[in-house]
Design goal:
This protein is mainly beta. It contains no helices and 11 strands.
Length: 118
């Protein structure tokens, strides 16, 4: 699911394990202006954009979630390396776990994402 941020179109490319930013200010000639790649186990699918900021939440509809930063001016994308499971050596959070703060209930599958403001 793509998101549009001004004249920047951010699109998932699951088969390439990547996100791409296109400048669509001239809709007849979109230009690729940003790209970020994930590891070969992650095929990005769902996106949500934090309208008040510069973050995208990205999940694969299976078990993992990443935060990606979008530079609104240039369209550059970068994985937020600080968003990770405790003790993990790589970015991203997995929902493939047995234990949660509310107790042991098994793995979960994140499907879709949203940012909310109070």
């Amino acid at each position: 699911m793509p998101v549009l941020v001004g004249s920047k179109w951010v699109q998932t490319i699951p088969d390439e394990h990547a996100l791409v930013t296109l400048d669509v200010s001239d809709s007849g000639r979109p230009r690729a202006i940003g790209r970020v790649a994930f590891d070969s186990t992650f095929g990005p699918h769902w996106l949500a954009f934090d309208e008040g900021g510069s973050r995208l939440v990205v999940n694969d509809g299976k078990a993992r979630v990443f935060l990606v930063t979008l530079d609104r001016r240039t369209g550059a994308l970068s994985i937020d390396s600080t968003f990770r499971d405790a003790g993990a050596t790589t970015p991203g959070v997995t929902f493939a776990r047995e234990s949660w703060p509310h107790g042991a209930s098994g793995a979960a599958i994140p499907h879709g994402s949203v940012f909310a403001r109070p």
